[in-house]
Amino acid sequence: MLHAETIQSLKAGLRGQVIEPGDAEYEAARKVHNGMIDRRPRLIVRCADVADVMAAVKFARENQVLVSIRGGGHNAAGLGVCDDGLVIDLSPMRYTQVDPGSRTVRVGGGCTWGDVDHATHAFGLAVPSGIIATTGVGGLTLGGGIGHLTRRCGLTIDNLIGADLVLADGSFVTASASEHPDLFWAIRGGGGNFGVVTSFVFRAHPVHTNYAGPMLWELEDGPKMLRWYRDFIRQAPDELNGFFAFLVVPPGPPFPEHLHLRKMCGVVWCYAGGLEQGEAALRPVREMFPPALDLCGPIPHPVMQSMFDALYTPGMQWYWKADFVNEINDDAIEAHMRHARQMPNLFSTMHLYPINGAAARVASSDTAWSYRGATWAEVIVGVDPDAANRDMIVNWARSYWNELHPYSAGGAYVNFMMDEGEERVKATYRDNYPRLAAVKARYDPGNFFRVNQNIRPQAE
Ligand SMILES: Cc1cc2nc3c(=O)[nH]c(=O)nc-3n(C[C@H](O)[C@H](O)[C@H](O)COP(=O)(O)OP(=O)(O)OC[C@H]3O[C@@H](n4cnc5c(N)ncnc54)[C@H](O)[C@@H]3O)c2cc1C
Asked: In a mutational test of the pocket of ligand 1, which residue from 87, 142, 194, 417 has the highest number of ligand atoms less than 8 Å from its CB?
């Protein structure tokens, strides 16, 4: 039980705002991207700077209050918010500082990827991230980061040079290859288990205008296209990324009317390495399998990054199921087709993100992110704007996943998982789990940061 004067003393020491139940902003401030999540924190601390983060950690520790850390609020399981606890909301800490000379960018812990893309694009640079610009830098990075530049530049964590953190004891450290290297290893894939990251420093790459966009084919061409894609992407040049999808065509521009609301299969391409080279890389597929819709062409990187933002607006119901996949055999393709034909609505979809290329050339033990040998991160999402359709999307995603899981590699990408329990987290980190547990024991022995895909502290 927190007394009013205790909360008042917290407020008095902060630059940022403290929001409590009953405050006008409370209902909006507790919402996250996934409308299925309905948590009621006791306090939401909107941190203005590192000092505020330190004060919030100290306050929570002294008053034994549960803590969650909120970056962009996109997490599938809603791990940015907690019931009855204190939310360390980093959303005011949205600054970016590009150093074009060293091709690095410092990013505040509350930034979205849209913030970063905007800042870096002016210098003809980009940091590998995801496929939606409204996603938070914090959660996406700490879980790994898969997106349009994965095959060329690696995961987001492969481009992380350092991070500043406030630890569970309230102290401030920098983690990098030379400072707290064990912590630096753990935060590259180990999620928000180790501290509040107040800023990240990334390596940026010369990327400006890509040859990119979706190509769609008839759903019944799915088996043929998926067979072709699974072989093609293994030997494609690193510059070419392409994730495979079963989807329903949105009923509006740029999609032609005759395709509206049709179930189709497709690949969203992104060639980052020259427009002519990109056109040449995709010529064979255009010739062999002329797409029903081809929106691939020159596109500025930030436009590519935000292409799907308007489709996936905040507050919809999201149910996520995921796996890593090494092989897609013909039986798996049949199972995919059975569930693709039953896609329940416009927003629900299945994506296969390639994690080969540059991402696969990092050893599994070099960072906490274990599944470097898998070829794809598969995700099945049931998504609907209406809570009344919750069962429909959950049932579809679950039965799709249940049938495909036997063909998977075992674990799943932490950022595509909901709350699936400790065994699933262990299956995801595999051999890296004991080392993660040991780092956790060193930096957070009391499991203060436990609203996450939790790694239990366990000394070596
Ligand atoms: C529409 C959509 C599209 C997506 N696309 C992709 C994609 O293309 N590629 C991909 O890899 N992932 C993708 N994701 C998944 C995304 O990576 C995760 O949802 C991620 O957790 C989001 O991070 P966040 O900061 O927005 O989330 P939050 O909900 O704010 O936080 C998620 C977790 O990260 C921790 N955390 C966040 N910020 C910090 C910080 N600064 N310090 C310490 N811990 C922190 C929190 O404790 C929490 O456990 C997508 C998600 C959505 C909803």
From this structure: 142
- Amino acid residing at 291: P
Instruction: Give me ligand 1 centre to Cα 80, in Å.
Output: 9
User: Are the C-beta atoms of 321 and 349 separated by less than 8 Å?
Assistant: no
User: Tokens standing for 426?
Assistant: 């262990």
Q: Which residue, judged by its Cα, is nearest atom 7 of ligand 1?
A: 130
End-to-end CA distance of the chain: 36
Percentage of the chain exceeding pLDDT 70: 100
pLDDT at 255: 95
The span from the CA of 254 to the CA of 263, in Å, is 16
pLDDT in tens, 260-275: 999 999 999 999 999 9
Residue list, ligand 1 pocket, CB within 6 Å:
32-33, 68-76, 79-80, 90, 109, 130-132, 135-136, 138-140, 142-143, 145-147, 191-192, 196-197, 312, 415, 452
- What is the arrangement of strands in the sheet containing 196-203, beginning at the earlier edge strand? 96-99, 104-108, 196-203, 160-166, 172-176
Tokens found for residue 429: 């980190």
pLDDT band (50, 70, 90) for residue 460: confident
H helices present in 306-389, as ranges = 330-340
Determine the 3-state secondary structure of 422 from DSSP. helix
Cis-peptide, bond into residue 254, ω within 30° of zero: yes
pTM: 0.98
